[in-house]
Amino acid sequence: MKKVIYLFVIGVILSSCSSKPHYTIKGKIDGSDSITFYLQKREAGKTVSIDSAVSRKGTFTMKGGAVDYPQIIQLVAGNTRKRTSFYLENSEMNIKGSLDSLFKADITGSKTQDEYKGYFNSIKPLGDSYSRFVIRYQSASQSGDAASSAKLEKQLDSIQTEMTTLQKNFVKTNPHSYVSPSILLSLSVEIEADEIESMVNGLDTSIAALPPIKSLKERVAVMKSVAVGQKAPDFTLSDVNGNPVALSSKIGSKLLLIDFWASWCNPCRQENPNVVKVFSEFHKKGFDVIGVSLDQKKEPWVKAIADDKLSWTHVSDLQYWNNAAAKLYAVNSIPANFLLDETGKIIGKNLRGEALYNKVNEVLGAKK
Question: Which CATH architecture best describes the domain 18-106?
Fold first, then answer.
């Protein structure tokens, strides 16, 4: 009897060991024989591999320990750009697809991934429509058709507003979903700090405690420090000749625009003519600009300044998204700008096109 009990206890122990939380990924990718697949994620600003497996006749299996919470990772085929993203969690997941179109692979077995699919399918029609209008807008802009460009820009804004509404509704109605942090992070580019904070407070406590949300809370604190009505934080960066320029040395103009941009940013380059127009018309009345570039190399930065005829002060530390001023101002998408009055107080943010012209005209238009 004791032996039977002993064997029973051993069985229970082994069973409990084998049932510890873990993930299993079973892949069936056509055309991928002898390809090494990697699981990769972003960590501390870098891409790291967390698992790998070699496919045999198009199939492979990965087994790993527990993940702390469902999170987005990428399955990458060898050293190629072929990849697909999905939510990894402690379950058995199946990935089926073709190497040539890995981004379209069907992924099952993850509850969080299923939630994301539902969200993606709800927003996809708007995303497709937005892409079509962007192509038309770019064509109109390149051909110099200002009337069509303005009309298409308003249509793009309308679609963007509708997409933002869908995103907000998902977060508000899915406070327990691990998809919500990712959506909220993308929303943080579009909405103000108070609204982000309100949406974070509406999340389940377990979701609000996740690292992405903790980072977002830190970002909200920075966003509040550069909200309209706040004093603009000072910074010093080098100009194109390597000379240090402090923001405080430029404050004193009736209006000063801090313009975050980069030579590689197409929307920035498309917006530049609007800033040139405002600068040309209002500079003598007290409007000035300090351009902060998120470039990585000096040559394309300087060339873009010349090509776009940007005749104002330009600074950069050539650190890309690690630009010190961009971090200080919670800038994580460009173009972005901050309009300051003569005391250095922020009186406007992300004013583009007609909005920038109208605001500057409101303040300086009647002044001689």
Answer: Sandwich (2.60)
